[in-house]
Protein: LacI family transcriptional regulator
Organism: Nocardioides zhouii
Amino acid sequence: MVRSDHRPGSQLPVTPTTLADVAERAGVSRQTVSNAVNNPDLLRPDTLERVRQTIAELGYSPNRAARNLRTRTSSLIGLRFTPAQEGTANAMMDRFVHSLVEASDEAGYHVLLFPADDEDPIGGYDNLLRSTAVDAFVVTDTYLGNPQAAWLSQQRAPFVAFGRPWDDDVARHVWVDVDGAAGTRLATQHLIDRGHTRIAWIGWRKDSPIGEDRRAGWVSTMHANGLPTTGMASRVEDVVHSGAEAAAVLLDESEPTAFVCASDTLAMGVLHTLWIRQLAPGRDIAVVGFDDSQVAQVFPVGLTSVRQPLEDVAVEIVRTLSALLSHQPVETRGVLLAPTLAIRGSS
Amino acid sequence: MVRSDHRPGSQLPVTPTTLADVAERAGVSRQTVSNAVNNPDLLRPDTLERVRQTIAELGYSPNRAARNLRTRTSSLIGLRFTPAQEGTANAMMDRFVHSLVEASDEAGYHVLLFPADDEDPIGGYDNLLRSTAVDAFVVTDTYLGNPQAAWLSQQRAPFVAFGRPWDDDVARHVWVDVDGAAGTRLATQHLIDRGHTRIAWIGWRKDSPIGEDRRAGWVSTMHANGLPTTGMASRVEDVVHSGAEAAAVLLDESEPTAFVCASDTLAMGVLHTLWIRQLAPGRDIAVVGFDDSQVAQVFPVGLTSVRQPLEDVAVEIVRTLSALLSHQPVETRGVLLAPTLAIRGSS
DNA sequence: CACCCCCCCTTGATCGATCCAACTGCGTGA
DNA sequence: TCACGCAGTTGGATCGATCAAGGGGGGGTG
C-alpha cells in the first residue's frame, strides 16, 4: 500500500488534481502519467522518477469513478451484512468482517456493505450487480435452500461463498469453509484426553447441515474411542434456555461428565444449568462450546471453545476472488480449513 | 427502495444495458430516459410510463461509475472498521454497523469499510478522499488526541463523528453521541430503587473522558440521594481480571451491595469474584454493566446493562450526513441520545 | 546508406451517465 | 398573422481515467 503523506499544513484543493494536471506539470502526456501509476515498467527510470515526484507534489490520486468507468471494474467487494442475533453468543461476523477488510485491502479491494432484506434475499445483490457497483460478492449465509448462490452462479457473477453448498451437489461455485466436524473432533478428543468417557452432545435441529456436520465430529470421535453415544445427544433450537433444558435432561438421564455443544450459546445454557445445580464447570462437569465468541472469552472461568480460523478464511476468500477476477483458473472448487481449540477453565 | 424483479430464467447480459439502449428501444432520447430516472416530473405521464416499462423489460440500472464521474459523487460513506478487542465484551460495533448500513441504504447510500492502520490513522481517509471514492465519512473513534476529526475538518471533508470532541472545545464538526452519564444515572437509580445504598463504581482510568463521563452519572445520582461515594470507586484497565481484582478489594474494604461498571467487561470481572466467593449475583450482590453486549444477554442469570441506542445513533448520523451532503444548513452541532437500561437477573 | 525494429512516449477515441443550450410543436394574446 | 412562452425533447459536450493506435529517435543490420 502506498502511504501518502499528509502534512498538517496541506489542504485538499477544491477541485482535485487530475491526471492531466500532473501531465502538464511534469511535461509529459496523460498516458505517461497513467503508465507511471499502472505500468511503471514502461517508463524510463528518470521519467518515472520525475512523474512520481510531481504526483507526490500535487498529492494526486486517480479518480476512482473515472477509472471504474473505463476499466469496468470498481475494486469493491460486496458483502451482505447480517448482524449477530440478539440473545445469542454468535458474533463471528465482527471478526470475519475485520479479517475480510484487511485481506481485501492488501489485494487492492474495499468492502462494500449492503443490508439484508429477508423478504427479498436477492434484491441487494441484483441492484449492485446491475449497476456494476461491485466486482464480486462474498456470500456468507449458505444455509440450506438459500437461493443466492444459485442465482449468482446463473448470473455469472463472480463470488466466493463462505460455507459449503450443502444442498446442491452440482453447485459449481467456489467456496471456503471451516471443517466443523474437525472442530468437534478436537473438542471431543480433548475431553477424552482429560479422562472423560461420558460426553454428551447438544446441537441444532436436524435440518441444519452445519449442525449435523459438527455432530458428526463428536459421533466419530466417540465411536473411534469405543465410547457410547446413544442417549447422550440432544438437538434443540440455538437459544440459551434450550441449551439449559437439554443439559438438565441429559444430566438426569445419562449422567454425562462433559458436554460438547454446537455453539457458545448452547454452552451458556449448559453453564446456566450447572450454576443452578451448584456444579462447578471445569471441576465437576466439563463444557466445550463452538465459535470462541467474546462470551467464551470473558466468562468467569473461561469457556473452552472451538475457534474458527476466520482470518485464514478471509485470506483464502480474497485470494480466490482475486484469481476469479483476473480470470486465472481457480485450481480448487472448495477449501476446507481446520479450526483450533481455545482451551479455558470450563474443561 | 425500488424492488427489481429477478425471475429465475433471466440472466444478466454480458454487456449490461445502457441508457442509450433503453432510449432506442423506447423511441426517445437518452436525456428523456435520464429524466425518467432522476426527474420523472419533467415527463408527460404516458412517456414516463413507456420509458419505465422499457427500463423494466431490459432490466436497466444506471452505471454507477458513469454517474459518479459526472456528478462527482459516489453515494458511498466510508467507515473505518475496528473490530472488537479479543478478551473483552465490547462488541457494539456489530450492532452499530448494521444500523448504519440500514439507515444509509434508506437514504440511498452504501457503506464502504476500510481497515484501521494504527501507524497511520489518517492514511485510509486520505486515500479515499483524494480518489473521491466516498462522499463522506463516519468517524467512530473520537478518543482523546485522535487527529482524525481535526484533519478531516481541515480538509473540508464531510463527516459526522460518533462521539463528542472531548479534547477540543473549538472543534467545529458535527457529532452524535450517547449520554453515558445518563446511562449510569439510570443504572444507579435503578439500584437505589431496589433498596441498595452502598453502591460501588468500577470504571476506567482517568485519562478516558468517556469513562469519566460515565462515572459522573454514578457520582451525581449517589450524591443526589445522599449516599456515600468515597472509598466506593475504583479506576482500572478495561479487562476482566482488573474488574475482578477491583471488586475483591472493594468488597473487602467498603462492603458494597451493588456494583455499577463502566463496561460489561468489568462487570464480568465482578461476577467472577462473586462466583469465587460463592455470592449469587442479583440475590447477594447486584451488578450492572454497560453496553448490553451479547455477554450480558447470555450470561446465566443475565447481566443488567446500559444499552446504547445505536439504531438511533445511526439514523441520526445518516440524517445529518444527508443534510451536509445536500448543503442544507445543519441546525445543531451535536446530538446527545439517551441510553436505556436492560434489566436482567444480576440486579 | 537504406531499412527495420524497438523503446519510449504522444494523440485521439472511448467508457456511460448527466449537464447544457437549443430546438420543436402547440397554444395564447396582441 | 406573428411573436412569445412553455412543456417536452434533442444532440453535443463533459467528467477523468484507460485503450488502441501512431510517431519519432537511436541503434543495429544488410
Notes: The domain at 76-179+310-338 of chain A is CATH 3.40.50.2300 (Rossmann fold). Residues 1-9 of chain A have pLDDT under 50 and may be disordered. The two ends of chain A are 44 Å apart (CA to CA).
